[in-house]
Amino acid sequence: MIGLIDSGMGGLTTLAALVERGCDHRFCYLADTRHAPYGERDSLSLIALGERWAKRLVGLGADAIVLGCNTLTMAALDYLQATTSVPVYGVRPPVVEGAMLLGTSYTCRKLGRGVALPRLATLIDAHYPDLPPIRAYLEGQLEGKSADTVVLGCTHYALVKDEISRVLHAKTVVDPSVWLARKLPRATGGQGVGVDLILTGDGDQGRYIETLKTLLGKEPNIV
Q1: In terms of Cα–Cα distance, which of 118, 91, 126, 90 is closest to 102?
Q2: How many CB atoms lie under 10 A from the CB of residue 106?
Q3: Which of 8, 26, 59, 84 has the most CB atoms around it within 10 Å of its CB?
């Protein structure tokens, strides 16, 4: 089983990228909605949360952990790789020359570059797939900006990459989850993809299932 951690819906895009890459496996997806958004937290709290949820997933039988969150990866990946009994992987935004990086406050501050969108992940968790409030926020935050290439520095943003591309007139949108999926060893058990969903706080599990269905292009096997 692969344990996947995010603060909300964003890591579903990472899960979908792994499946698209050929990972025929059972997943346990943990959405830490109780402590969202991660992008406005500090390093110590992010490390503590990452350690807490990694231990829980290992206890449930995970033989690998994927941090489906750029912010959590930036804060806690090195620590978790050193202290967790199973392999831990994370999503990092690649450096692409001339590209515009969009990210959370934490990620942009940590990297010292990029355009921070502090409320976007929260709006996606609250409204997706209802796009008008998300679109209005993007248009307000990115007014007057444009870029040929955009790097997504938050897994949530992949859910609205078409809106981001439209607002910024971007020709290319780089999704780091796809890069991560290429690096991970393929796990092919031949049993089909199964997904356990854990929400630590409030959240509409049905909306998570519908979003995953859209991303996978088929009905997910929720176990």
Answers
A1: 118
A2: 25
A3: 8
Sheet order of strands, 149-153 included: 115-116, 100-103, 149-153, 172-174
Coil, helix or strand at residue 190: coil
What predicted TM-score, i.e. pTM, was given to this entire model? 0.94
Q: Using omega within 30 degrees of 0 as the cis cutoff, is the peptide bond preceding 132 cis?
A: no
- 2-91+178-222, which class in CATH? alpha beta
Whole-angstrom Cα distance, residue 88 to residue 3?
Answer: 9
Helix (H, G, I), strand (E, B) or coil at 59: helix
Catalytic machinery residues: 69, 154
Give the pLDDT confidence of 4-28 residue by residue, as tens digits: 999 999 999 999 999 988 887 789 9
Task: Say whether domain 100-177 belongs to CATH 3.30.460.80.
Answer: no
Q: Do domains 2-91+178-222 and 100-177 have the same CATH topology?
A: yes
Q: Hunting for tokens 């679109």 — which residue is that?
A: 135
Token digits of residue 22: 């050929």
Three-class DSSP category at 139: helix
pLDDT in tens, 145-175: 999 999 999 999 999 999 999 999 999 999 9
Task: For residues 93 and 83, give the distance between their C-alpha atoms in angstroms, rounded to a whole number.
Answer: 23
Q: List the structure tokens of 63.
A: 């033989």
- The CA–CA distances, whole Å, from 184 to 26, 88, 138 equal 15, 10, 32
Q: State yes or no: cis peptide before 37, omega within 30 of 0.
A: yes
